[in-house]
Specification:
Number of domains: 2
Number of helices: 8
CATH architecture of the largest domain: 2-Layer Sandwich
Structural class: alpha/beta
Helix content: 25-40%
CATH superfamily of the largest domain: ATPase, nucleotide binding domain
Shape: globular
Distance between the termini: 78 Å
Radius of gyration: 20 Å
Largest sheet: 5 strands, mixed
Number of strands: 14
Strand order of the largest sheet: 3-2-1-8-9
């Protein structure tokens, strides 16, 4: 029998079926870690916790990776066996906007346990917008209400233009602190953003209506309060608690048409101008 040598193009397997093009999207939050594997979908949605000795360790707190080794140990335990053997995946990690540089640096170190061929980071707000299929040619205000952190981010042309954060989330609500606290914190951040904006971008984004994401978007008592204090229509991303990881997965799907990954952040990961570093703590400015 004569062996037939196929042309190189015909031997290529479509991504993600090609083993060397395995990809992982990660959203490592303060409360939960979610992972999306190319070709398989959402494979992980678990508490962000690892174990060292006799106790539990929480490597991410209020949007910061405080234990890089613990985060790496957690990712190795939860994900390594879910990836095809002998692969080097492309990894896309979501990151909070403020304090993002430190987070990105630590996240890249933690995911080395997966032996990636490249690591990209994307601002969580931009990932949310991608998951929603939002029109990024117009200014967009993204309100991401997590378990321990709330971010209000203004996107212009798909890039971060301004951002605020509050160390407050759904996990802080109790009898002493109701949903009104989150509504007031978001309103304060939006008002501060509006006052400091010398352009019309914030006004246009508020008129368009903020895009809600995170577990807080599933809480009617929070969303109704937000609508009251912002006096503008709101829209929630479908399945808002997984929006960030799904947006990162959208970037993974586009990776096959891009040049080889070098591990460098895309330009959209950098604010167009320095975002104010002033932060809101439990709704106080």
């Amino acid at each position: 029998m004569t062996a037939v040598r196929l042309p190189a193009d015909s031997r290529r397997l479509p991504w993600p079926l090609s083993r060397h093009r395995c990809g992982v999207a990660l959203d490592i939050g303060s409360a939960r870690t979610r992972a999306w594997v190319a070709g398989r979908g959402l494979v992980l949605d678990v508490p962000t916790v690892t174990f060292a000795g006799a106790g539990a360790v929480y490597p991410v707190q209020r949007g910061r990776i405080v234990d890089t080794e613990g985060a790496a140990r957690m990712l190795g335990r939860l994900l390594a066996h879910r990836l095809p053997r002998f692969t080097r995946p492309l990894v896309v990690v979501t990151a909070p906007v403020l304090d993002g540089y430190a987070y990105r640096t630590q996240a890249r170190t933690a995911v080395q346990v997966l032996r990636p061929r490249g690591v990209l980071t994307v601002p969580s707000a931009r990932a949310v917008a991608l998951a929603a299929g939002a029109d990024l040619s117009r200014p967009l205000l993204v309100v991401d209400i997590g378990a321990r952190l709330t971010e209000v981010v203004l996107l212009a042309d798909g890039a971060v233009f301004d951002a605020r954060r509050a160390a407050l989330g759904t996990g802080d609500l109790d009898d002493a602190m109701g949903p009104a606290a989150i509504g007031e914190a978001v309103a304060g951040m939006a008002t501060s953003m509006l006052r400091q904006d010398r352009t019309s971008l914030t006004v246009e984004a508020l008129g368009r209506g903020p895009l809600l994401a995170g577990g807080g978007a599933l809480r009617p008592e929070i969303t109704c309060r937000l609508a009251d204090v912002l006096h503008t229509p709101l829209s929630a991303v479908p399945a808002p608690h997984t929006a960030a990881v799904r947006g990162a997965a959208t970037l993974l799907a586009a990776a096959d048409s891009h040049p080889p990954v070098t591990g460098t952040d895309p330009p959209a990961d950098r604010p167009r101008r320095p975002a104010p570093t002033r932060r809101t703590q439990r709704g106080r400015t």
